[in-house]
Design goal:
The chain is α/β, with parallel strands linked by helices. It contains 17 helices and eleven strands. The radius of gyration is 21 Å and the shape is globular.
Length: 420
């Protein structure tokens, strides 16, 4: 019942501007090995700045070792090299983010992230390589860029790996770096590069110990080979099944996450930044009936309960950076007030201020009924707002929730866009 949820919010919600409440959140989250930080949109400034402050404190106070984001591995490697001051790395964060040239560029090339990149670099200064904080992307979209990286690593070597890389390159070259063309050919005409991509991954894994670990070469090579195989799978089935391609993508994200954790060793503690639809446990949403899984569900299933902590985010109203169509110019859009009876509207109804709720065995039943919970993507049409709500058991989808009453649009940097 709505009144029970309202009463529960009034009883258990804490003010976000009270540091002691945030301290309590960090104390619990800091005990985990994986902390997943969500967002209700990819274009809200406060989601980025709030996650950045939580991230800094988890790194400084709780010993977290890496940040993994919903971005492309090759592009994020430019930031990783910058913050670790690797040889030939970009000298400035502005130079590093030029690598984020695939639409939507604004997700990781924005003013809010520049500040975090600088902070991570300063934090790493004076530390040895084994103790420096890393920054990685775990998405699956970078098919062509990852092939390029594998060729770069193996192109000068005379080995089975190099031959496998050459075969992959020759096969994919016929599609002129066009993912739509590949998806149609592989998914509908069965004319793809599956065998070549799988063989490449197998060869790289078989011989990975032969490669130097200088500047994370072995990790970079293996993950890019993994992306080549999984991206091929993703695009091949994309034209036939939205749900299964989603599953391929999120399973890939978790696989990359575990590669990063393995790289940092037994003491690895990783912070994940991704949309609520990825980090919030799918089993507590309508995704369950659709046969889809996500990162939050998979990580919970594969780790002990105390080792995973998921924090969702939401807002009542404000502005957002998004676009009305895929690939079009970004806009600063108005986010209308949350729909009556939604999770965000009930949080607003109990007082127009920023809140934090930590779920536990005592209060989870109060918030266990399915209720509409807003999700805004990079493509957003406010006039169709009613379709942007995911039925969710909020207290089972997340371990905690941060509510920001009024939020503003993200501040993108100007980066030349490549549409793929």
């Amino acid at each position: 019942m709505v009144w029970e949820v309202v009463e529960g919010i009034e009883k258990y919600a804490k003010r976000l501007d009270d540091r002691s409440n945030v301290d309590a959140l960090l104390e619990r989250a800091g005990q985990a090995k994986v902390v997943l930080l969500g967002e209700a949109s990819h274009g809200t400034s406060e989601f980025y700045t709030t996650r950045a402050e939580i991230t800094k404190r988890l790194i400084e106070e709780k010993g977290f070792t890496a940040v993994v984001v919903e971005g492309d591995w090759p592009s994020c490697q430019q930031v990783n090299q910058y913050i670790k001051r690797y040889e030939d790395a970009p000298a400035t964060p502005e130079e590093a983010v030029k690598a984020f040239n695939r639409w939507p560029t604004w997700m990781w090339a924005n003013e809010e992230m520049l500040e975090l990149y600088r902070w991570m670099r300063e934090h790493n200064d004076g530390r040895t390589d084994g103790t420096k904080i890393g920054f990685y992307g775990f998405d699956v979209y970078s098919l062509w860029e990852s092939i390029d990286e594998v060729i770069r690593h193996l192109g000068k070597k005379s080995s089975a790996d190099a031959e496998a890389a050459r075969q992959v390159f020759e096969c994919f070259a016929t599609f002129n770096r066009n993912t739509e063309s590949y998806a149609v050919s592989a998914g509908l005409l069965s004319e793809g590069c599956t065998d070549e991509a799988v063989k490449l991954l197998a060869e790289v894994r078989r011989h990975k110990h032969a490669y130097t670990t200088r500047e994370e070469e072995a990790l970079d090579l293996e993950v890019n080979a993994l992306i080549t195989a999984n991206a091929e799978h993703y695009y091949r089935i994309m034209v036939r099944s939205d749900n299964e391609s989603w599953n391929v993508r999120d399973r890939h994200m978790v696989e990359v996450l575990h590669h990063v954790m393995k790289f940092y060793g037994e003491d690895a503690k990783v912070i994940v930044w991704a949309h609520n639809t990825h980090v919030g446990d799918a089993r507590a949403t309508s995704m369950l009936e659709e046969g889809t899984v996500n990162v939050g569900q998979l990580v919970r299933e594969q780790h002990a309960p105390e080792d995973v902590y998921i924090i969702g985010f939401g807002t009542y109203t404000g502005t957002v950076t998004a676009s009305e169509e895929w690939g079009l110019n970004l806009e600063r859009m108005h986010v209308p007030a949350a729909r009556p009876g939604s999770w965000e509207e009930l949080l607003h109804r109990t007082g127009p201020y920023d809140k934090l709720i930590m779920f536990n065995e005592e209060n989870r039943p109060i918030f266990s009924d399915r209720i509409g919970h807003r999700a805004i993507g990079v493509v957003y049409r406010p006039r169709y707002e009613r379709y942007n709500y995911v039925p969710s058991q909020v207290s089972h989808r997340y371990d905690a929730f941060i509510y920001l009453e009024t939020t503003q649009a993200l501040h993108p940097l100007s980066v030349p866009v490549v549409l793929v």
